[in-house]
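TA notes, week 10

Several of you asked for a full example with nothing omitted. So below is the full record: C-alpha coordinates for the whole chain, then the designed sequence directly under it. When grading your own attempts, check the secondary structure regions first.
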Protein backbone atom coordinates (compact mmCIF):
# COMPACT_ATOMS: atom_id res chain seq x y z
CA UNK A 1 0.00 0.00 0.00
CA UNK A 2 1.60 3.27 -1.10
CA UNK A 3 1.48 6.26 1.21
CA UNK A 4 1.41 9.92 0.16
CA UNK A 5 4.81 10.39 1.75
CA UNK A 6 8.20 10.35 0.07
CA UNK A 7 11.86 11.07 0.76
CA UNK A 8 13.60 13.65 -1.45
CA UNK A 9 17.35 14.00 -1.92
CA UNK A 10 17.96 17.67 -1.20
CA UNK A 11 21.24 19.31 -2.23
CA UNK A 12 20.04 22.88 -1.79
CA UNK A 13 20.39 23.38 -5.55
CA UNK A 14 17.56 24.64 -7.73
CA UNK A 15 16.61 21.26 -9.21
CA UNK A 16 16.11 19.59 -5.85
CA UNK A 17 14.09 22.57 -4.58
CA UNK A 18 11.80 22.34 -7.60
CA UNK A 19 11.42 18.55 -7.37
CA UNK A 20 10.12 19.02 -3.83
CA UNK A 21 7.83 21.92 -4.77
CA UNK A 22 6.27 19.92 -7.61
CA UNK A 23 5.31 17.13 -5.24
CA UNK A 24 4.22 19.38 -2.40
CA UNK A 25 1.88 20.99 -4.95
CA UNK A 26 0.24 17.60 -5.29
CA UNK A 27 -0.22 17.34 -1.52
CA UNK A 28 2.55 14.79 -1.15
CA UNK A 29 4.28 14.91 2.21
CA UNK A 30 7.98 15.26 1.34
CA UNK A 31 10.86 14.57 3.74
CA UNK A 32 13.89 16.41 2.30
CA UNK A 33 17.18 14.78 3.26
CA UNK A 34 20.46 16.61 2.79
CA UNK A 35 23.49 14.32 2.68
CA UNK A 36 26.50 16.44 3.63
CA UNK A 37 30.25 15.93 3.77
CA UNK A 38 33.37 18.12 3.57
CA UNK A 39 32.97 18.06 -0.24
CA UNK A 40 29.34 19.11 -0.37
CA UNK A 41 27.88 20.90 2.59
CA UNK A 42 30.98 21.90 4.54
CA UNK A 43 28.93 24.91 5.68
CA UNK A 44 26.58 22.39 7.33
CA UNK A 45 29.48 20.82 9.23
CA UNK A 46 30.38 24.28 10.54
CA UNK A 47 26.86 25.52 11.32
CA UNK A 48 23.98 23.09 10.73
CA UNK A 49 21.33 25.22 12.42
CA UNK A 50 22.01 28.25 10.21
CA UNK A 51 21.78 26.07 7.11
CA UNK A 52 18.42 24.66 8.18
CA UNK A 53 17.07 28.08 9.11
CA UNK A 54 18.20 29.61 5.81
CA UNK A 55 16.53 26.93 3.68
CA UNK A 56 13.34 27.08 5.69
CA UNK A 57 13.16 30.87 5.45
CA UNK A 58 14.22 31.20 1.81
CA UNK A 59 12.56 28.20 0.18
CA UNK A 60 10.08 26.96 2.80
CA UNK A 61 11.93 23.64 2.96
CA UNK A 62 12.43 21.98 6.36
CA UNK A 63 15.47 19.89 5.64
CA UNK A 64 16.79 16.93 7.63
CA UNK A 65 20.59 16.60 7.68
CA UNK A 66 22.52 13.34 7.32
CA UNK A 67 26.29 13.02 7.64
CA UNK A 68 27.49 11.23 4.51
CA UNK A 69 31.21 11.61 5.24
CA UNK A 70 31.98 7.95 6.13
CA UNK A 71 30.29 6.74 2.95
CA UNK A 72 31.77 9.27 0.53
CA UNK A 73 35.26 8.78 1.97
CA UNK A 74 35.00 5.08 1.08
CA UNK A 75 33.43 5.76 -2.30
CA UNK A 76 36.10 8.24 -3.41
CA UNK A 77 38.78 5.65 -2.64
CA UNK A 78 37.50 3.16 -5.24
CA UNK A 79 34.23 3.88 -7.02
CA UNK A 80 32.75 0.96 -8.94
CA UNK A 81 31.57 3.27 -11.75
CA UNK A 82 34.71 5.41 -11.79
CA UNK A 83 35.15 9.18 -11.64
CA UNK A 84 33.77 12.07 -13.64
CA UNK A 85 36.06 14.76 -14.99
CA UNK A 86 37.86 15.13 -11.67
CA UNK A 87 37.52 13.15 -8.42
CA UNK A 88 33.71 13.09 -8.49
CA UNK A 89 32.38 9.52 -8.32
CA UNK A 90 28.83 10.65 -9.17
CA UNK A 91 27.15 7.36 -10.00
CA UNK A 92 28.41 5.57 -6.88
CA UNK A 93 27.71 8.67 -4.79
CA UNK A 94 24.06 8.80 -5.95
CA UNK A 95 23.62 5.07 -5.43
CA UNK A 96 24.97 5.39 -1.89
CA UNK A 97 22.62 8.25 -1.01
CA UNK A 98 19.65 6.43 -2.44
CA UNK A 99 20.51 3.22 -0.60
CA UNK A 100 20.62 5.20 2.62
CA UNK A 101 17.29 6.78 1.77
CA UNK A 102 15.77 3.38 1.03
CA UNK A 103 16.92 2.13 4.43
CA UNK A 104 15.02 5.03 6.03
CA UNK A 105 11.78 4.62 4.11
CA UNK A 106 10.07 2.33 6.57
CA UNK A 107 10.98 4.43 9.62
CA UNK A 108 9.79 7.58 7.90
CA UNK A 109 6.64 6.01 6.47
CA UNK A 110 7.71 6.92 2.94
CA UNK A 111 6.79 4.79 -0.06
CA UNK A 112 8.97 6.31 -2.76
CA UNK A 113 12.06 8.47 -3.27
CA UNK A 114 12.47 11.63 -5.31
CA UNK A 115 15.49 13.33 -6.84
CA UNK A 116 15.99 16.56 -8.79
CA UNK A 117 17.81 14.77 -11.60
CA UNK A 118 17.25 16.01 -15.14
CA UNK A 119 17.82 13.68 -18.07
CA UNK A 120 20.85 14.82 -20.10
CA UNK A 121 21.91 17.49 -17.63
CA UNK A 122 25.15 15.96 -16.42
CA UNK A 123 27.54 13.94 -18.54
CA UNK A 124 28.30 11.27 -15.96
CA UNK A 125 25.23 10.44 -13.91
CA UNK A 126 22.25 11.97 -15.70
CA UNK A 127 22.19 10.03 -18.93
CA UNK A 128 19.57 7.37 -19.46
CA UNK A 129 21.89 4.39 -18.94
CA UNK A 130 23.51 5.52 -15.65
CA UNK A 131 20.12 6.68 -14.39
CA UNK A 132 18.87 3.13 -14.94
CA UNK A 133 21.94 1.71 -13.14
CA UNK A 134 21.36 4.09 -10.25
CA UNK A 135 17.75 2.98 -9.95
CA UNK A 136 18.63 -0.70 -10.15
CA UNK A 137 21.62 -0.66 -7.77
CA UNK A 138 19.91 1.47 -5.16
CA UNK A 139 17.13 -1.13 -4.87
CA UNK A 140 14.53 1.53 -5.74
CA UNK A 141 13.25 -0.02 -8.95
CA UNK A 142 9.90 1.52 -9.87
CA UNK A 143 9.80 3.77 -6.80
CA UNK A 144 12.45 6.32 -7.78
CA UNK A 145 10.72 9.39 -9.19
CA UNK A 146 12.47 12.25 -11.00
CA UNK A 147 9.70 14.86 -11.15
CA UNK A 148 11.55 17.38 -13.37
CA UNK A 149 11.96 14.95 -16.25
CA UNK A 150 9.39 12.27 -15.36
CA UNK A 151 7.57 12.52 -18.67
CA UNK A 152 10.78 11.48 -20.44
CA UNK A 153 10.95 8.29 -18.35
CA UNK A 154 8.64 5.29 -17.93
CA UNK A 155 5.84 5.89 -15.38
CA UNK A 156 6.85 4.83 -11.87
CA UNK A 157 4.65 2.93 -9.43
CA UNK A 158 3.40 6.05 -7.58
CA UNK A 159 2.36 7.53 -10.93
CA UNK A 160 0.64 4.35 -12.11
CA UNK A 161 -1.13 4.00 -8.76
CA UNK A 162 -2.42 7.57 -8.98
CA UNK A 163 -0.56 8.79 -5.87
CA UNK A 164 1.29 11.24 -8.12
CA UNK A 165 -0.37 12.85 -11.13
CA UNK A 166 2.02 12.27 -14.03
CA UNK A 167 0.33 14.99 -16.06
CA UNK A 168 1.61 17.60 -13.60
CA UNK A 169 5.20 16.38 -13.68
CA UNK A 170 8.02 17.87 -15.77
CA UNK A 171 9.33 17.23 -19.22
CA UNK A 172 12.70 18.97 -18.85
CA UNK A 173 15.82 17.62 -20.58
CA UNK A 174 19.34 18.93 -21.09
CA UNK A 175 21.70 21.36 -19.49
CA UNK A 176 19.78 24.64 -19.82
CA UNK A 177 18.19 26.31 -16.81
CA UNK A 178 15.49 28.35 -18.53
CA UNK A 179 12.61 26.01 -17.69
CA UNK A 180 13.78 25.64 -14.10
CA UNK A 181 14.02 29.39 -13.64
CA UNK A 182 10.51 29.90 -15.04
CA UNK A 183 9.26 27.22 -12.67
CA UNK A 184 11.11 28.75 -9.71
CA UNK A 185 9.55 32.15 -10.35
CA UNK A 186 6.13 30.52 -10.61
CA UNK A 187 6.68 29.09 -7.12
CA UNK A 188 7.38 32.57 -5.80
CA UNK A 189 11.14 32.14 -5.40
CA UNK A 190 12.69 35.59 -5.82
CA UNK A 191 15.10 35.89 -8.73
CA UNK A 192 18.01 36.87 -6.48
CA UNK A 193 17.36 33.85 -4.24
CA UNK A 194 17.58 31.28 -7.02
CA UNK A 195 20.72 29.23 -6.26
CA UNK A 196 23.45 29.60 -8.86
CA UNK A 197 24.46 26.49 -10.81
CA UNK A 198 28.07 26.73 -9.60
CA UNK A 199 29.40 26.14 -6.12
CA UNK A 200 28.08 22.64 -5.58
CA UNK A 201 30.31 19.67 -5.06
CA UNK A 202 34.01 20.33 -4.53
CA UNK A 203 34.95 16.96 -6.00
CA UNK A 204 34.16 18.49 -9.40
CA UNK A 205 36.81 21.17 -8.81
CA UNK A 206 40.19 20.46 -10.38
CA UNK A 207 42.40 22.08 -7.74
CA UNK A 208 40.54 20.58 -4.81
CA UNK A 209 40.52 17.16 -6.46
CA UNK A 210 44.32 17.35 -6.71
CA UNK A 211 44.61 18.11 -3.02
CA UNK A 212 42.15 15.38 -2.06
CA UNK A 213 43.96 12.84 -4.23
CA UNK A 214 47.22 13.80 -2.52
CA UNK A 215 45.60 13.38 0.90
CA UNK A 216 44.39 9.87 0.04
CA UNK A 217 47.86 8.92 -1.20
CA UNK A 218 49.61 10.48 1.79
CA UNK A 219 47.45 8.67 4.35
CA UNK A 220 47.19 5.34 2.50
CA UNK A 221 46.36 2.63 3.60
CA UNK A 222 44.31 4.60 6.15
CA UNK A 223 41.35 6.59 4.91
CA UNK A 224 41.25 10.36 5.47
CA UNK A 225 39.17 11.66 8.37
CA UNK A 226 36.77 14.59 8.15
CA UNK A 227 39.50 16.79 9.66
CA UNK A 228 41.95 15.87 6.87
CA UNK A 229 39.44 16.62 4.14
CA UNK A 230 38.30 19.93 5.63
CA UNK A 231 41.90 21.08 5.20
CA UNK A 232 41.71 20.27 1.49
CA UNK A 233 38.87 22.65 0.81
CA UNK A 234 40.32 25.98 1.91
CA UNK A 235 43.53 27.89 1.91
CA UNK A 236 46.95 27.58 0.38
CA UNK A 237 48.27 24.10 1.06
CA UNK A 238 51.82 22.91 1.75
CA UNK A 239 53.02 19.35 2.31
CA UNK A 240 55.71 19.64 5.00
CA UNK A 241 56.61 15.95 5.00
CA UNK A 242 55.03 12.60 4.19
CA UNK A 243 52.76 12.89 7.24
CA UNK A 244 52.26 16.61 7.68
CA UNK A 245 50.15 19.23 5.97
CA UNK A 246 50.06 23.00 6.44
CA UNK A 247 47.20 25.21 5.29
CA UNK A 248 47.58 29.01 5.25
CA UNK A 249 44.53 31.24 4.84
CA UNK A 250 44.37 33.67 1.90
CA UNK A 251 41.81 36.16 3.20
CA UNK A 252 39.47 36.99 6.06
CA UNK A 253 36.86 34.43 4.98
CA UNK A 254 39.46 31.68 5.02
CA UNK A 255 40.71 32.93 8.40
CA UNK A 256 37.18 32.38 9.72
CA UNK A 257 36.86 29.00 8.00
CA UNK A 258 40.20 27.74 9.33
CA UNK A 259 39.48 28.99 12.85
CA UNK A 260 36.35 26.82 12.85
CA UNK A 261 38.36 23.66 12.18
CA UNK A 262 38.98 22.74 15.78
CA UNK A 263 39.64 19.00 15.45
CA UNK A 264 41.87 16.79 17.59
CA UNK A 265 45.21 16.69 15.79
CA UNK A 266 45.04 20.24 14.37
CA UNK A 267 47.47 22.89 15.59
CA UNK A 268 46.76 26.56 14.81
CA UNK A 269 49.59 28.96 14.15
CA UNK A 270 50.01 32.69 13.42
CA UNK A 271 52.78 35.26 13.50
CA UNK A 272 52.87 37.18 16.80
CA UNK A 273 52.34 40.95 16.91
CA UNK A 274 51.59 41.52 13.21
CA UNK A 275 48.44 40.95 11.20
CA UNK A 276 48.59 38.05 8.82
CA UNK A 277 47.11 34.71 7.93
CA UNK A 278 45.96 31.97 10.25
CA UNK A 279 47.51 28.58 9.53
CA UNK A 280 46.69 25.01 10.52
CA UNK A 281 49.26 22.24 10.82
CA UNK A 282 48.15 18.60 10.92
CA UNK A 283 50.40 15.57 11.23
CA UNK A 284 53.81 15.56 12.89
CA UNK A 285 54.34 18.57 15.20
CA UNK A 286 58.12 18.24 15.40
CA UNK A 287 60.03 21.52 16.09
CA UNK A 288 61.37 21.28 12.55
CA UNK A 289 57.88 21.13 11.03
CA UNK A 290 56.58 23.91 13.27
CA UNK A 291 59.52 26.10 12.24
CA UNK A 292 58.83 25.40 8.57
CA UNK A 293 55.16 26.25 9.14
CA UNK A 294 56.10 29.48 10.95
CA UNK A 295 58.46 30.48 8.13
CA UNK A 296 55.84 29.90 5.44
CA UNK A 297 53.21 31.72 7.48
CA UNK A 298 55.54 34.72 7.83
CA UNK A 299 55.99 34.84 4.04
CA UNK A 300 52.24 35.38 3.52
CA UNK A 301 51.76 38.08 6.16
CA UNK A 302 52.63 41.75 6.73
CA UNK A 303 56.09 40.91 8.10
CA UNK A 304 57.17 39.12 4.92
CA UNK A 305 60.96 39.04 4.58
CA UNK A 306 61.61 40.42 8.07
CA UNK A 307 63.79 38.48 10.49
CA UNK A 308 63.25 38.29 14.25
CA UNK A 309 59.59 37.34 14.37
CA UNK A 310 58.00 34.54 16.33
CA UNK A 311 54.91 32.47 15.64
CA UNK A 312 52.33 31.56 18.27
CA UNK A 313 50.72 28.15 18.13
CA UNK A 314 48.34 25.84 19.97
CA UNK A 315 45.20 23.71 19.61
CA UNK A 316 42.84 26.66 20.28
CA UNK A 317 42.80 29.29 17.51
CA UNK A 318 41.73 31.97 19.99
CA UNK A 319 44.27 31.14 22.66
CA UNK A 320 47.66 30.13 21.24
CA UNK A 321 50.11 29.98 24.10
CA UNK A 322 53.32 28.47 22.74
CA UNK A 323 55.82 30.15 20.45
CA UNK A 324 58.59 29.31 18.00
CA UNK A 325 61.04 31.29 15.85
CA UNK A 326 59.81 32.26 12.44
CA UNK A 327 62.74 32.70 10.04
CA UNK A 328 62.32 34.81 6.88
CA UNK A 329 62.50 32.55 3.82
CA UNK A 330 62.30 32.93 0.04
CA UNK A 331 59.31 32.30 -2.21
CA UNK A 332 61.23 29.40 -3.75
CA UNK A 333 61.58 27.78 -0.33
CA UNK A 334 57.81 27.98 0.22
CA UNK A 335 57.06 26.61 -3.24
CA UNK A 336 59.09 23.48 -2.61
CA UNK A 337 56.36 22.39 -0.19
CA UNK A 338 53.45 22.84 -2.60
CA UNK A 339 51.97 20.01 -4.62
CA UNK A 340 53.43 20.50 -8.12
CA UNK A 341 50.21 21.36 -9.85
CA UNK A 342 49.18 23.87 -7.16
CA UNK A 343 52.28 26.08 -7.40
S1 LIG B 1 28.60 16.03 -7.91
FE1 LIG B 1 29.43 15.36 -5.95
S2 LIG B 1 27.62 15.22 -4.60
FE2 LIG B 1 26.88 15.25 -6.72
S3 LIG B 1 26.71 13.09 -7.25
FE3 LIG B 1 28.72 13.81 -7.94
S4 LIG B 1 30.12 13.26 -6.26
FE4 LIG B 1 28.01 13.19 -5.45
Amino acid sequence: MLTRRCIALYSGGLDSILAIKILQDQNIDVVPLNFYSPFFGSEIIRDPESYKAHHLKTFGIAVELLDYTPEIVQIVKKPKYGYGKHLNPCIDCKIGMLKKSKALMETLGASFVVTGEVLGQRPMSQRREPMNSIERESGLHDILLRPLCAKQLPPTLPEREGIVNRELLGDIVGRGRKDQITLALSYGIAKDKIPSPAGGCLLTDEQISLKVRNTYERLDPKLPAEADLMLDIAGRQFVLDARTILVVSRDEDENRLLSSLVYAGNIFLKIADVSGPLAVVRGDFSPDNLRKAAAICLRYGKARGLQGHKALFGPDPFNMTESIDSPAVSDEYCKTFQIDTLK
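The mean pLDDT is 95. Use that as a sanity check on your answer.
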